[in-house]
Amino acid sequence: MATSAAQIAARLDRLPMTRHIWYLITLISLGGCFEIYDLFLTAYIAPGLNKAGFFTPESLGVFNVLGPLGVKGIGTFVFALFAGLFVGAIFLGHVADQYGRRTVFTFSLIWYSITTAIMAFQSTGFGVDLWRFIAGIGIGIELVTIDT
What we know:
This protein has about 150 residues and is mainly α. It has helices spanning about 5-15, 20-50, 75-90, 95-100, 100-120, 125-145. The longest helix has about 35 residues, at about 20-50. The mean pLDDT is about 85.
C-alpha cells in the first residue's frame, strides 16, 4: 500500500513536541540567523569597504573588474555572496542526503564561520570577494539543510 504525502504530513503533525524536537528547532533557527545576518551585512558594510578603498561605488562590468589592485566594483562584493549561495545550494545541496542533514548542517556552519573569519583579515578587494564567495557556498548548503 502506497503512502501519500498527505498521510505522511498528517503523521508528522500528530507526533508529540518533545524537548528534543524543540532543542533541534532552536538550533536550526539560530543557524538560520547566520543566513539573514549575512544577507543584511552586505548593505551595512559596503559603504565602509568603499571608504577603506577596497571597492568603488561604480559597477565596472564583467570584463573590467580586474585591474592592478584586484576587483574594484562594490557590485562584485554583492555578486560573490549570491554566486556562492548558488553553487552551495545547487551543486552541494545533495550532500545532505548522503551524509545526513545534521552532520552537513553543522559542517556548513563551521565552514561559514571559518571562511568569514579568514575574510576579515583580507587586505584586497579580490581577497574579500574570494572568501565571501567561499563563505556563500557554506550558507548555500545551510539553506538546503534548514529547509529540509
